[in-house]
Amino acid sequence: MTERFDLYYWPGLQGRGEFPRLVLEAAEAPYRDMARLDETEGGGVPAMMAILETGIGGRIPFAPPFLVENGKLVAQAAEVSAWLGERLGLAPTGEADRLFARTIALTTADLVAEAHDTHHPVGTGLYYEDQKPEALRRATEFRRERMPKFLGWYERLLMANGSGFLAGDRLTYADLGLFQIVEGLRYAFPRRMAAIETDYRRVLALRDRVAGDPPIARYLASPRRIPFNEDGIFRRYPELDGD
Amino acid sequence: MTERFDLYYWPGLQGRGEFPRLVLEAAEAPYRDMARLDETEGGGVPAMMAILETGIGGRIPFAPPFLVENGKLVAQAAEVSAWLGERLGLAPTGEADRLFARTIALTTADLVAEAHDTHHPVGTGLYYEDQKPEALRRATEFRRERMPKFLGWYERLLMANGSGFLAGDRLTYADLGLFQIVEGLRYAFPRRMAAIETDYRRVLALRDRVAGDPPIARYLASPRRIPFNEDGIFRRYPELDGD
User: Fold this and answer.
1) Which CATH code is given to the segment(s) A95-213+236-240?
2) Contact A161 B75 (CB under 8 A)
3) What is the mean pLDDT of residues B9-33?
4) Pairing of strands A72-75, A31-33
5) Do A99 and B72 touch (CB under 8 A)?
6) pLDDT, position B3
7) B184 CB contacts (<8 Å, ≥6 apart)?
């Protein structure tokens, strides 16, 4: 049986779905982006909502993104990315590195949650406009304390590893995740990134290397790559940015 | 070579370290709680800080908890718990369930982060006292919207699975995580839990089953179980609780 991956995520935004999507694209794997597919082909948001309601074989995801393959369901962006990476040759080969790549992906997921909370510090159920004072404080903390801490950690990993990749000696889903982080931070916090990003030259070199990977370059130029926008995790609200 | 697990986490609080600790205890695995060990035995906070600085074999964790075994390093509470559970017989046996248990553990980690942010909605670098108005709003959202959503999801999983466990048909690290969630929510939000917890009778039954598991019961009665306190993730600030 030919493997085929069905990825489920909200249409119209990159969000957390972009992390597994980048792995599928880098591997040139056969996949369907289900919620963006027409309802006549079994796709659309209703198909996604049905799985959120009843699951697959009693396994119910808490939220998108999730992936279905051959009756198995995996949710959580970091877990889907790791599982796909290990299946599709985008994971380290050695055991210790394979394990550590998972640690990196989960830490990246934490950074994504913190980036999200810069515009939703009170709750996802409320509009940004209804939590602006809190967002201004949280975004300031995020820019000043968290961005350098996370970016500095990736930089130290690259320095310690020495191969130009975060774990092992080839491109993995951990690197694809860092690419997306740099792109997202540049979109959401252009002034802050302009002020600090040159401190992380190994991170930027890896970002460029991923962007130049032929399948990824083709993907980024395709309509499959949804532009960043203010429905996603990384949102450009100028009042939340600063040096 | 006999396996031995070295767990590193801040001493004096349960925090995120409690998730892997519960797995080690339930499996009665040989482990050392390194930061609580005397410095003359190679433990203490300085030993932990040294690994946060330089890593193990170039693999540097972002934050505790992390686990070291035979030269390998794993960080992130959900990943450490999953890795230990799969090693120590506290994971589902079937492939689809093994995979889904990881999804559950990562979702539990998201809930833990949200519980943390009820008292630190602006940033971890600031005192609770310096973010009280934001904490009041976030905690209200958490109690009203997020607690029922997460607890309701676990309840649906238990209903769909039917074995009394979250994944597969035996006790796993996913169940241990849910036990800790119930304990933590009861500690931090006693009024809210009293008001809603009977809606989740399968969750409560699993909590009781875990508490009665002999190795866990022995652990909970031992000095190794640190009491909940206001340095941890789940903090009892009466002003953040409510029906």
Assistant:
1) 1.20.1050.10
2) no
3) 98
4) unpaired
5) yes
6) 75
7) B14, B112, B115, B228, B233, B234
The residue count of chain A comes to 243
- How far is the C-alpha of B55 from the C-alpha of A64, rounded, in Å? 33
Give the strand pairing for A72-75 and A66-69: antiparallel
Tens digit of each residue's pLDDT (9 = 90 or more) over A133-144: 999 999 999 999
For B227, other C-beta atoms within 10 Å of its C-beta total: 9
A107 and B62 within 8 Å at the Cβ level: the answer is yes
Among chain B residues, CA nearest to A124: B141
Q: What is the pLDDT of residues A4-54, one digit of tens each?
A: 999 999 999 999 999 999 999 999 999 999 999 999 999 999 999 999 999
The residue in chain A having the minimum alpha-carbon distance to the alpha carbon of residue B99 is: A74
The CB density around residue A24, as the number of other CB atoms within 10 Å, is 24
Pairing of strands A66-69, B72-75: unpaired
> Two tokens at A44?
């659309």
Kindly indicate whether the domain formed by B95-213 is annotated with CATH number 1.20.1050.10.
yes
CATH assignment of B5-87? 3.40.30.10
**Cross-chain CB nearest to A122 (options B141, B156, B162):** B141
Contact (CB, 8 A) for B17 and B64: yes
Of the CA atoms within 13 Å of residue A208, those in its CB half-sphere come to: 7
